[in-house]
């Protein structure tokens, strides 16, 4: 049994770090606020009997030795948030993994495999425009050119790492090889489990996020002196592309496409914009369908901008392949859910998660817990104490079963 009171207390204690006026949480990567959260989680890990280290990119790693010389079971999630996000996204997964290990220790249950609990750096991508920095490093896929990406204030990822005391020159050392599997618990961030009235479910696969940045350059001119038929207005062209993106995405069963940021210049009330930039996030659990939607959006954008004499460039910010969860791990999670008397619900994840980076490295599994009203990335994000406990019990049982296999 897990200690649900301890887990619940830690969820709320951790959420006070980076708390916003309306009870949300803002913790961007490589900031003093996130550093404070890292130190708090390090304390929890040490209380659970874990040996704690920080790797070259700043992932917090707690290790519990196994009784045999075997590959490690890797558990974890992330601590960073979107702007004014919720207290459960990411953090619940890290804290649940710690609780599972601490409960095993307290109940004198010794595993054959070592367990590593990890709090990944920057899953959300809120600061530098691309996410999963920590899991990319663990997978061995973080590139040195990635370190030159800059935040809104012009600070590079490389320099941000240095400021927080990490070692970007040694990113290859963050790669993990001796791993049996990766298991993560996360809030669903949707309404499937709520609709089915069950607290916990098993994830079948993770939709791959594709992030694109569209840059449109027209001609900035006087808003009053330039006739409508003589304008090269990139904002109008952008609005047409954005509208068509929604229409195209709706043709697909599981695809989604979202414009999350937009900016224009020069930004005067009486000036026709000269340039516009916006991002589109495209996802589907099937890579070929996601890529087909991408092509349709790009083709439409090329047609509209050519007609309006607007210069168009499109940059890939992130392209992550969808990941199917291991059948073996799924079956074990199902058994652990059924052991508690709950109906077994299987569902895909539309949101991306750190486990996606391990597609070609080692098996991945995920447990979802119910999200109230499906709200996430929002201060109103909420999972009940009872549902958090059900998820933690499921992870505990699953880890014990997988350790024996």
Automatic annotation (TrEMBL):
Residue ranges that the Swiss-Prot or TrEMBL entry lists as coiled coil: 283-310
Peptidase M20 dimerisation domain residues: 206-306
Short name of any one Pfam family annotated for the protein: M20_dimer
Ligand binding (Zn(2+) 2): 89, 124, 377
Keyword annotations of the record: Coiled coil, Hydrolase, Metal-binding, Zinc
GO MF, one example: hydrolase activity, acting on carbon-nitrogen (but not peptide) bonds, in linear amidines
Domain of life per record: Bacteria
Cofactor note (record): Binds 2 Zn(2+) ions per subunit.
Cofactor: Zn(2+)
Residues annotated as binding Zn(2+) 1: 78, 89, 186
Family that this chain belongs to: Belongs to the peptidase M20 family.
Name by which UniProt lists this protein: Zn-dependent hydrolase
Species this chain originates from: Heyndrickxia camelliae
């Amino acid at each position: 049994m897990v200690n649900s009171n301890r887990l619940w207390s830690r969820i709320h204690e951790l959420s006070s770090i980076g708390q916003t006026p309306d009870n949300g949480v803002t913790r961007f990567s490589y900031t003093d606020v996130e550093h404070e959260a890292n130190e708090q989680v390090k304390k929890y890990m040490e209380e659970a009997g874990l040996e704690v280290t920080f790797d070259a990119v700043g992932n917090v790693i707690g290790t519990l030795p196994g009784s045999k010389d075997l590959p490690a079971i890797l558990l974890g999630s992330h601590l960073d948030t979107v702007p004014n996000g919720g207290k459960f996204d990411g953090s619940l997964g890290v804290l649940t993994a710690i609780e599972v290990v601490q409960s095993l220790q307290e109940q004198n249950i010794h595993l054959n495999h070592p367990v590593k609990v990890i709090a990944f750096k920057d899953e959300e991508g809120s600061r530098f425009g691309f996410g999963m920095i920590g899991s990319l490093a663990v997978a061995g896929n973080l590139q040195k050119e990635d370190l030159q990406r800059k935040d809104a204030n012009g600070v590079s990822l490389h320099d941000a790492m240095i400021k927080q005391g990490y070692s970007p020159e040694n990113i290859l050392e963050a790669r993990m090889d001796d791993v049996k599997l990766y298991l993560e618990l996360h809030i669903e961030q949707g309404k499937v489990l709520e609709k089915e009235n069950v607290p916990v479910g098993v994830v079948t696969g993770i939709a791959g996020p594709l992030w694109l940045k569209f840059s449109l350059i027209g001609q900035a001119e006087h808003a009053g002196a330039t006739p409508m038929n003589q304008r090269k207005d990139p904002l109008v062209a952008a609005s047409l592309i954005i509208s068509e993106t929604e229409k195209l995405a709706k043709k697909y069963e599981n695809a989604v496409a979202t414009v999350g940021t937009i900016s224009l210049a020069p930004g005067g009330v009486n000036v026709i914009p000269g340039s516009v930039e916006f991002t589109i996030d495209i996802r589907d659990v099937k890579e070929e369908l996601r890529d087909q939607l991408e092509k349709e959006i790009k083709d439409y954008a090329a047609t509209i901008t050519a007609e309006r004499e607007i210069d168009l460039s499109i940059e890939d910010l992130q392209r992550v392949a969808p990941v199917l969860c291991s059948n073996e791990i799924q079956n074990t999670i199902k058994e652990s859910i059924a052991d508690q008397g709950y109906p077994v619900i299987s569902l895909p994840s539309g949101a991306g998660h750190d486990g996606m980076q391990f597609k070609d490295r080692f098996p991945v599994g995920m447990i979802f817990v119910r999200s109230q009203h499906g709200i996430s990335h929002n201060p109103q994000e909420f999972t009940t104490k009872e549902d958090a406990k059900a998820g933690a019990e499921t992870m505990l049982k699953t880890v014990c079963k997988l350790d024996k296999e």
